[in-house]
UniProtKB/TrEMBL annotation:
Pathway the protein contributes to: Amino-acid biosynthesis; L-threonine biosynthesis; L-threonine from L-aspartate: step 1/5; Amino-acid biosynthesis; L-lysine biosynthesis via DAP pathway; (S)-tetrahydrodipicolinate from L-aspartate: step 1/4; Amino-acid biosynthesis; L-methionine biosynthesis via de novo pathway; L-homoserine from L-aspartate: step 1/3
InterPro entries (UniProt xref): AceGlu_kinase-like_sf (IPR036393), ACT-like_dom_sf (IPR045865), ACT_Aspartokinase (IPR054352), ACT_dom (IPR002912), AKii-LysC-BS (IPR041740), Asp/Glu/Uridylate_kinase (IPR001048), Asp_kin_monofn (IPR005260), Asp_kinase (IPR001341)
Gene Ontology CC: cytosol
UniProt keyword terms in alphabetical order: Amino-acid biosynthesis, ATP-binding, Diaminopimelate biosynthesis, Kinase, Lysine biosynthesis, Nucleotide-binding, Transferase
EC number: 2.7.2.4
Taxonomy, superkingdom: Bacteria
Residue ranges occupied by any ACT domain in the UniProt entry: 270-346, 352-425
Keyword Transferase applies: yes
Protein name: Aspartokinase
GO molecular function annotation: aspartate kinase activity; ATP binding
Length: 425
């Protein structure tokens, strides 16, 4: 018997009827001759509601206690799902992240998985039971406290368990039928991608596509675990995330030049104006940002003006961390000697991603021409071997996505994308 790990997102288990539907799908997988391990997220908007509750009680909730609170959502899901499966005549056993052997570091709110020791899961499978695991959570190796894994934590839990159990596949269920060439809310003719490489998926995730989280894909790539992204609301074949050489089934076809268009509206831009053009100044700026535990994305430094020997340095970062970064940089003004800081939180990022672009000249030109024809102004540019990203005004993000999608003929002849649960997650 093969092992299948399935993960169901919050919209898939949003209410009692949804849970019963998911239970029937799980039982069907079991009847097909598989051993089944299921990872569940909290029901619907439970996590957001718990965060709101914590903020009402305390303006700055203690990180340890917040983790203890937030893990309650997944524990509810796992218990009621196990009940639904038991009512269908199959034994199901529910486990918290710590009971499932998910061992993490001690960083509350964004813990990283150190190890997975799934002894109790293996015992349940050996007894013929279906194992239901609470996603998004683990236990610290050092403090023994309950921890949460942060955004996309349930996806990461599922892949980590699949690797530890040597599963055949990790199935990630949400409320869309797979990974699409663009967000179907913006581009209704977005095409479902049948197979996509880990590397392309990583770029799509990093540039704002929300169907899979970055850490989950990194884990899968490291251990070569196939991911099947599909909908819990339909029986359609989804998108397979696999090694690059497995993207084309016959091994002879070349990959599409551009796989998809991703966008991110959660960006902000900071410009440090009038930085002295001498060694060490840029290092001081980015050390201050790093010490504030802020991840930055694009960086652009202008050529210094000959008359003043001053330059401007711009970079993008998550919008939620913008004011923290501004405070950290403000403390540097006397030592670095820059003239001023500019902050813009009305920007967005649009990216084209595709393994085929590395051997296809003219991709950037076609992308920029499409944006120009759509009247979209480019503020910053960043590239990798399989990605070109631009920062534009937030108000122009949707125009940019549609223009890029059309420029590379990514659309389907008919509407393929259906968001069954209303969130796309």
């Amino acid at each position: 018997m093969g092992i299948v790990v399935q993960k169901y997102g919050g919209s898939s288990v949003a209410d009692a009827e949804s849970i019963k539907r998911v239970a029937r799908r799980i039982v069907e997988t079991k009847k097909a001759g598989n051993q089944v391990v299921v990872v569940v997220s909290a029901m619907g908007d439970t996590t957001d509601e718990l965060i709101d509750l914590a903020n009402e009680v305390s303006p700055l909730p203690a990180a340890r206690e917040l983790d203890m609170l937030l893990t309650a959502g997944e524990r509810i899901s796992m218990a009621v799902l196990a009940m639904a499966i038991n009512d269908l005549g199959h034994e199901a056993r529910s486990f918290t992240g710590s009971q499932a052997g998910v061992i993490t570091d001690a960083e509350h709110g964004r813990a990283k998985i150190i190890d997975v020791t799934p002894g109790r899961i293996e015992a349940a499978l050996a007894d013929g039971a279906i194992a239901i695991v609470a996603g998004f959570q683990g236990v610290s190796q050092t403090t023994k406290d309950i921890t949460t894994l942060g955004r996309g934590g349930s996806d990461t839990t599922a892949v980590a368990l699949a690797v530890a159990l040597r599963a055949d596949v990790c199935e990630i269920y949400s409320d869309v039928d797979g990974i699409f060439s663009a967000d179907p809310r913006i581009e209704p003719r977005a095409r479902k991608v049948d197979r996509i490489s880990y590397e392309e998926t990583l770029e799509m995730a990093a540039q704002g596509a929300k169907i899979l989280h970055l850490r989950c894909v990194e884990y899968a790539r490291r251990y070569d675990m196939p991911i099947h992204v599909r909908s819990s609301f339909s029986e359609k074949e989804g998108t397979w995330v696999v090694k690059a050489e497995d993207v084309t089934k016959d091994g002879t076809m070349e990959a599409a030049i551009i796989t998809g268009v991703a966008h991110d509206r959660s960006q902000a831009k900071i410009t440090v104006v009038g930085v002295p053009d001498k060694p060490g100044e840029a290092a001081a700026i980015f050390r201050a940002v790093a010490d504030a535990a802020i991840n930055i994305d694009m960086i652009v430094q202008n050529v210094s003006a000959a008359a003043t020997s001053l330059t401007d340095v711009s970079f993008t970062l998550p919008r939620g961390e913008g004011q923290t970064a501004m405070s950290a940089l403000d403390k540097l003004k006397a030592t670095v000697g820059y003239e001023s800081l500019q902050y813009d939180d009305s920007v967005g990022k649009v990216s084209i991603v595709g393994a085929g672009m590395s051997s296809s000249p003219g991709i950037s030109a076609r992308f920029f021409e499409a944006l120009s024809d759509a009247g979209v102004n480019i503020e910053m540019i960043s590239t990798s071997e399989i990605r070109v990203s631009v920062v534009v005004a937030e108000s122009q993000v949707e125009d940019a996505v549609r223009a890029a999608h059309a420029a590379f003929d990514l659309g389907s002849d008919e509407v393929e994308a259906v968001v069954y649960g209303g969130t796309g997650r």
